[in-house]
Amino acid sequence: MTNPTDGKFDVILKAAIEVISEKGLDKSSISEIVKLAGVAQGTFYLYFKSKKDLIPAIADKLLAITLADVKVKTEQKETFWEKLDVLIDETFQTTNTHQDIIVLVYSGLAVHHSLEKWEAVYQPYYDWFEQVMREAIENEEIIDSIHVGWTARSLINMIENAAERYYIGYEQDEELAVYRAELFHFIKRSLERL
Amino acid sequence: MTNPTDGKFDVILKAAIEVISEKGLDKSSISEIVKLAGVAQGTFYLYFKSKKDLIPAIADKLLAITLADVKVKTEQKETFWEKLDVLIDETFQTTNTHQDIIVLVYSGLAVHHSLEKWEAVYQPYYDWFEQVMREAIENEEIIDSIHVGWTARSLINMIENAAERYYIGYEQDEELAVYRAELFHFIKRSLERL
Amino acid sequence: MTNPTDGKFDVILKAAIEVISEKGLDKSSISEIVKLAGVAQGTFYLYFKSKKDLIPAIADKLLAITLADVKVKTEQKETFWEKLDVLIDETFQTTNTHQDIIVLVYSGLAVHHSLEKWEAVYQPYYDWFEQVMREAIENEEIIDSIHVGWTARSLINMIENAAERYYIGYEQDEELAVYRAELFHFIKRSLERL
Amino acid sequence: MTNPTDGKFDVILKAAIEVISEKGLDKSSISEIVKLAGVAQGTFYLYFKSKKDLIPAIADKLLAITLADVKVKTEQKETFWEKLDVLIDETFQTTNTHQDIIVLVYSGLAVHHSLEKWEAVYQPYYDWFEQVMREAIENEEIIDSIHVGWTARSLINMIENAAERYYIGYEQDEELAVYRAELFHFIKRSLERL
DNA sequence: GATGAATGAGCTTTCATTCAT
DNA sequence: CATGAATGAAAGCTCATTCAT
């Protein structure tokens, strides 16, 4: 009857991601989530204090997956520019796959005043990219007159934003490759050490 | 009692902005909005088709104000770089003043699947900035090997994002001036024609 | 369609009394009350702030009816002892008719920590009986060495209690007349001026 | 870890009294009670058939304690009037100490339709006081023309009621001594054999 | 006996929307 | 145009109770 991966927490979280992806947080009901998860209404509250407790849990899961992926794929790359390319690639892919959940995470965190948690969730991502940038500075690939913390955050945001603009809704009047190239070169022009 | 500018539409919109700024869209009720506006419950539906009709209206109003302001202030400036500086300045100021409503507009548009309207709302803003960039290209202030449409959108997003990261929540561990300088130079390095 | 006595407040209150009489406050659901009242769920909350808002309203209504009745019937009586007899009679009758609601009022007020309201509700009743006792003292029917306020409250309680013990549950192993006589004489022996 | 007197029944009952005293029966949850008792959720149902099974058990315990106390203290007294004085004293003290639980017992028994049990619970109390009254009649301290059963119940109720009126809520505008004297003399006037 | 995770019916309350006046 | 009482669907959440271990 029970299945090794059947931690109820994960079952519920998975169902929640699925339902919320489709309808958004506010239109999604706990009852629909538990129905899909195959557990009772009350069981939800054994694992989550309330409905909005879902948001950080979802964000956590999503970012953890993405970061793990990015780390694996960038490890094999030598130069900063190759790594940046991987980052752009992964971000576009993740954004495409998880469009709705990303919107949820963005807006959910914002709307439900859990901004403090947002930073905590993103911190490992930022840390990793700051480290990548520091190495690039040491290797004299990029200029050293930048504020690494700020730039890391700005780049991650810029990349995510570009991906979102492309996939989530509106700007598909050009080739994906053109967009990605534009993005890559915009950054490269700004950071490259000549 | 009534005031010449008191078109009910504007009265309701103003009340809506106030209430929603404080509590977010989903926690705000029509009944609270109409109470603050001093009109009857039913009157709301004479001017707005439904609750979520408010979001684009609010976004519209906010962007219109900001854009008008930016236009006035940039007209007096000669160079692209001065205009960019004004744009950054205005964006930071608006973000600071209207934090909550900006979050609302972002997430509201996203969550409530009115993404199509988003583009329409932002279009005049993009149009204006594209024009500014084209003039800068003609004046040989910035490089001409860019996709103007994409870059205009990316810059506006980048600037807004930086402002949001600064004000809405988390990154105030540095001087505002440092942040703004970092942003300005990041862009300048990428676009400047040497 | 509408009926002159159809103040929704009264319709709901009447339905509430009926339902709660049968099942007690906690077992009664708003949905059952509004169904019986023939109004919508939301309408209830137009007239009552919450479920427990019902208790004082019910108590008020019940006591007002009883007191009005007692006043009318005692006015025709000359002596204190005749009035006391009427009071006993009315109390027993009301208790018999409204058994469940009396239990509700007692326990509801107690349980839901609205004890302050209890006094307010009973005050007119106490006032009236104090006045009756003062006249009896003036007419030298009863002794004057009593604390009128305390005695009025105690007698009303004693009479209600006797009625409740008789009707609400347990002590019907004797004739009603015997009980009432016992009660009447217990009081008379204590108060009569010889 | 376990304590010889820690029969689970008593542990749970004690926890229940504590929790219910504070929040009332309906606001108290089994889960809170078992948490305080330090036993598992299911253990509760090994000792009590259901939640409302608690009420008679609590009432039983409380009355047993009070009656034992009253018995001890009255045994040393000679006359009926001295014993009555002790009874009044004890009742006021118990009422003061156990205000909330008394309210619960009263209203709980009433509301939850376990009125049959009420009589069973009170029976030993009534029996004892009837016996005291019979002795007083034999000793020609009080009149013999009374219905002993009815009078015993009425007096116990009257005394409890007076105490409740004094402590639970409202009537503290006079000295306690005045109230108690008024009560004592009201009864004495009615019963004393001259 | 003891456990405590799981259950699921059922609750109060909210609120966008309608419509007779 | 304006009103606001009425609607009723739908939501989040609680908790007494069960039962496999």
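The longest helix of chain C spans residues 115-138.
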